[in-house]
Amino acid sequence: MSDSEIKGQNTIGQNVGLKATEGGILHNLPYHVVWSVKGYGKQAMATAAIAALVVRPSTISALTIYNPAGNSKHLIIERVFAHNLVTATTELGSIWLCSHPVGMTAPTGNDITIRNSTSGHGAGDSATIVDTAETVLNNGWFPWGQALLTPLDGTVPSGAVCAEVGGRIIVPPSAGLSVHVVASTASNTYTCGFHWFEVPTLELTVS
Fold first, then answer.
1. Which of 1, 23, 112, 143 is the one with CA 20 to 30 A from 92?
2. Is residue 199 part of a domain?
3. Cα(63)–Cα(136) distance, rounded to whole angstroms?
4. Domain presence at residue 11
5. 73-82: per-residue pLDDT in tens?
6. Which residues contact 136 (CB under 8 A, 6 or more apart)?
7. How many CB atoms lie within 10 A of CB 183?
């Protein structure tokens, strides 16, 4: 049998050879490792705690991330998280997210200006807008992740709750994503944040 080579197509339409182990097993790196190496990973978090809601969120977010219309990248949401700063005794809190479609009204502010890199680069280098307590359209709020149970003794501060989105929410240019926390008491306050990848549109082309 003659030797053969398996090829695949890269993001610009070129055929490239696929790599394998010595035993012939094809392998590749997880997307989040590749994008982290490329410096696409960013994180941002609110600096002031906001009281939890005791009803489904509506038109006020705890934190909103917006992808400006002129940006050439899509935001691939990896995680959304909230730190429970002030707690009441034995209370539950969970993350709720609202995806705002293309053409949303841009936030009026940009409270959180630091964009922490997840690959050892300096903070910054991001076109995104991240704003707290933003007025938004109610495009549909849904719970994500597991609920957080605060300690029996009401310890301050408490833990954090995290929604492992894993790329299942994408924010294209002129769209956004909002987060709020719904808890069993408004006495609980949270600082929310996002972890995302800023990926050039070309790398997301699948056809």
1. 112
2. yes
3. 10
4. no
5. 999 999 999 9
6. 59, 60, 61, 64, 98, 100, 104, 176, 178
7. 25
CA 197, 118, 95 angle in degrees (round to 5)? 65
- Which residues have CB under 8 Å from 180's CB, separation 6+? 52, 53, 57, 60, 61, 62, 95, 96, 98, 141, 192
Q: Shortest CA distance to 151 belongs to which of 192, 79, 93? A: 93
Q: How far is CA 46 from CA 1, 88, 111, 199, in A?
A: 61, 21, 8, 23
What sign does the dihedral 65-67-73-75 (CA atoms) show? positive
Name which of 145, 63, 73, 146 is nearest 112 in CA terms: 63
Q: Is 3 a domain residue?
A: no
Domain presence at residue 39: yes
pLDDT band at 206 (very low <50, low <70, confident <90, very high): low
Element of type H or E holding 10: none
Total domains in the fold of the chain = 1
